[in-house]
Write a structure and sequence with these properties.
The protein is built from one helix and 27 strands. The protein has four domains: about 1-40; about 45-140, Sandwich (Immunoglobulin-like); about 145-245, Immunoglobulins (Immunoglobulin-like, Sandwich), CATH 2.60.40.10; about 250-340, Immunoglobulin-like. The strands form five sheets. Strands 9, 10, 11, 13, 14, 15, 16, 17 and 18 form a nine-stranded mixed β-sheet that branches. The longest helix has about 40 residues, at about 1-40. By secondary structure, the protein is mostly beta strands.
Length: about 350
């Protein structure tokens, strides 16, 4: 009886031993996989960027230039030495926006990109190593020693121009300059000026857009001028000329459907019209024949009577081309409209 109990207990101990050993083997394999993954994730690329900053106007190196960038909310700064040389170290993988400042020069921004492991060829290879990536980046700064002047006019008539005051002119530089857009406003003589502009080798785009009051009329333009800055000199920009605005003027009623020979046609506009500016031409559409007008009479500031010099024909389409100056939001502006109408049947 004792021998049977001893044999049973021995079998149980053997099974327990085998189970523990198997568990240890599985645990060891699992830990090996974790360590392998961690080793792969611990590897990184460490960026090192260096170069020289020069003055684009004189060709000399620039010392004491501040280069700054932000990483995880912290601002990092370095400065160039007496030889214009700078170094940036311990940069992590990814994009970094550099801001480059120097007294007397335009501020510029530049982007550098430090590659990651896969971008330098370390793909699916477990590693805990640091890979050092070095880049040379030389930059050029431009002195703020250029200026521009110009003028803005409103075209009153074909032969008359009037200076336009309080007009905003913008000057736009390429992306990378801070600021990238400068502003100037015309004086009472229609003159504007930009000073302390970067003397860089390229175009600056000058623009006027929108509407402005000149006298009691509204003028507008959406035009640009391109010009290159000249170091330590002023450049005169070709003048801007604004034209009278066109506005939404239309006919809200007419009596064409009840026209009879010998009668006039009356139009009512949605706006008041300056009678002295109004003109009208009428054409018969079938053969585009001009219809002479005997007289134009204003019945109200927005209602006009047009009397043809000859009777209109029955069931014929006529087109009225009308233009002039209309009053909109207490501003008067150009308008030009055309309206095609049919005469009724009559004998």
């Amino acid at each position: 009886m004792l021998n049977k109990l001893s044999i049973g207990s021995g079998k149980k101990l053997l099974i327990l031993f085998i189970s523990i050993a198997a568990a240890l083997i599985v645990s060891s394999c699992f830990n090996t996989n974790i360590e392998s993954e961690n080793a792969q994730n611990n590897g990184r690329v460490v960026g090192f960027v260096h170069g020289i900053i020069t003055d684009g106007n004189t060709g000399t190196v620039v010392q004491n230039v501040e280069i700054s960038w932000v990483h995880k909310g912290n601002v990092n700064r370095v400065k160039t030495d007496i030889d214009g040389y700078y170094t940036l170290s311990n940069l992590v993988s990814g994009s970094h926006l550099l801001t480059i400042k120097s007294e007397g020069h335009a501020i510029v921004t530049r982007t550098i990109v430090i590659p990651n492991l896969s971008e330098i060829g370390i793909i699916d290879i477990p590693t805990g190593e640091d890979f050092h990536h070095s880049m040379i980046q030389n930059y050029t700064l431009f002195q703020q020693k250029s200026s521009f002047t110009g003028s803005v006019y409103a075209r009153i008539t074909e032969d008359e121009l009037r200076p336009a005051s309080n007009v905003v002119v913008t000057a736009t530089l390429p992306t990378g300059f801070i600021p990238a857009v400068y502003f100037a406003t015309t004086n009472n003589d229609g003159k504007y000026a930009f000073t302390d502009m970067p003397s860089y080798n390229g175009d600056i785009i000058f623009r006027i857009e929108g509407s402005y009051m000149v006298g009691n009329l509204t003028y507008s333009t959406n035009s640009t001028r391109n010009s290159n800055p000249i170091y330590d000199q002023n450049v005169e920009i070709n003048r801007f000329i604004m034209t009278l605005d066109e506005v939404d003027v239309f006919v809200i009623s007419n009596n064409m459907s009840s026209y009879l020979p010998g009668r006039s046609i009356e139009f009512t506009f949605n706006r008041d019209i300056q009678a002295s500016s109004f003109s009208v031409d009428v054409y018969a559409d079938y053969y585009y024949e001009y219809v002479p007008i005997r007289n134009v009479t204003w019945l109200a500031s927005n209602r006009v009577r047009i009397t043809p010099d000859e009777n209109l024909e029955s069931e014929t389409r006529y087109t009225f081309f009308m233009s002039g100056i209309g009053n909109v939001r207490n501003e008067v502006n150009n308008f030009s409209i055309s309206l095609s109408l049919w005469t009724p049947y009559f004998e």
